[in-house]
């Protein structure tokens, strides 16, 4: 009897995840309109979105942001990537840059929309302290040059806690609080979850869906295959634990975001 009960519970859980996925597909555009502050009655679709994903290293885009990139590309949004280092910690920068371009192509971002910064003051190094003013100036230039209206980046915990990830968040928060972001541009930070939630793969989906967030991006089995193919482009990083990450990380299936609050515009800093 108890075996039947367990089987029923597991089956119900899996069915509820499938239902969530289909419900999410219907409601994603509405959530995007809400975060972009588009009036409910106004027609808007993915083509109105120019999104900028800001990362610190090659492979961050697929390790952490793949569900978002895949869903935005599906909606015909213009997705740009700004990666603030070449990932040169082991002197493999040139190779990692090529891997990044391949990964982006798999995710649907053409090379013309990928920018990799190679600056001696922005090394790939968890012990390096990146300058907030330098990083924020690079980001705001990019926002203006490409008329970006949605920026997506790490939150203050940087998913893995890497100092370069948190430095990117600090820079975007600095832009937000000093009113340097264009009026029509919204800023979103990727929610870092605890260890248990992080490594239960798609089983975590109901929690992500139910807990409050501004934006939730979920991919199904086809999207997961795409995210996995992008991960495999980063050949220099394919150590055994990377395969565990591909199998068990919830970031391969779902992303949730919170809004980064913005201060008054055009503040003059003396
Ligand atoms: Zn990273």
TrEMBL record:
It comes from the Eukaryota. It holds the Pfam family PIG-L. The chain crosses the membrane at residues 240-260. One of its GO terms (biological process) is GPI anchor biosynthetic process. One of its GO terms (cellular component) is endoplasmic reticulum. The keyword Acyltransferase does not apply. Its EC number is 3.5.1.89. GO terms for molecular function: N-acetylglucosaminylphosphatidylinositol deacetylase activity. It is an enzyme of class 3 (hydrolase). Keywords: Membrane, Transmembrane, Transmembrane helix. The keyword Membrane applies. InterPro entries: GlcNAc_PI_deacetylase-related, LmbE-like_dom_sf. Belongs to the PIGL family. This is N-acetylglucosaminylphosphatidylinositol deacetylase.
């Amino acid at each position: 009897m108890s075996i039947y009960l367990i089987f029923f519970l597991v089956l119900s859980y899996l069915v509820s995840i499938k239902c969530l996925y289909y419900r999410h597909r219907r409601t994603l555009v509405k959530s995007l309109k809400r975060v972009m502050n588009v009036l409910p009655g106004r027609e808007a679709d993915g083509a109105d979105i120019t999104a900028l994903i800001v990362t610190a290293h090659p492979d961050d885009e697929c390790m952490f942001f793949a569900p978002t990139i895949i869903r935005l590309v599906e909606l015909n949004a213009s997705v740009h990537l700004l990666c603030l280092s070449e990932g040169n910690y082991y002197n493999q920068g040139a190779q990692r840059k090529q891997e990044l371009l391949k990964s982006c192509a798999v995710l649907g971002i053409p090379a013309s929309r990928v920018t990799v910064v190679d600056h001696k003051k922005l090394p790939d190094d968890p012990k390096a302290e990146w300058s907030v003013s330098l990083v924020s100036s690079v980001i705001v230039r990019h926002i203006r040059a490409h008329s970006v209206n949605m920026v997506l980046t790490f939150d203050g915990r940087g998913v893995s806690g890497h100092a370069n990830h948190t430095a990117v968040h600090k820079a975007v928060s600095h832009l937000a609080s000093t009113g340097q972001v264009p009026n029509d541009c919204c800023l979103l930070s990727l929610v870092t979850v605890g260890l248990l939630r992080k490594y239960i793969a798609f089983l975590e989906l109901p929690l992500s869906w139910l807990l409050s967030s501004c934006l939730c991006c979920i991919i199904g089995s086809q999207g997961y295959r795409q995210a996995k193919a992008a991960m495999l482009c980063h050949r220099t990083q394919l150590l055994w634990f990377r395969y565990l990450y591909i199998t068990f990380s919830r970031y391969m299936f779902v992303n949730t975001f919170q809004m980064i609050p913005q201060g008054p515009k055009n503040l003059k800093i003396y």
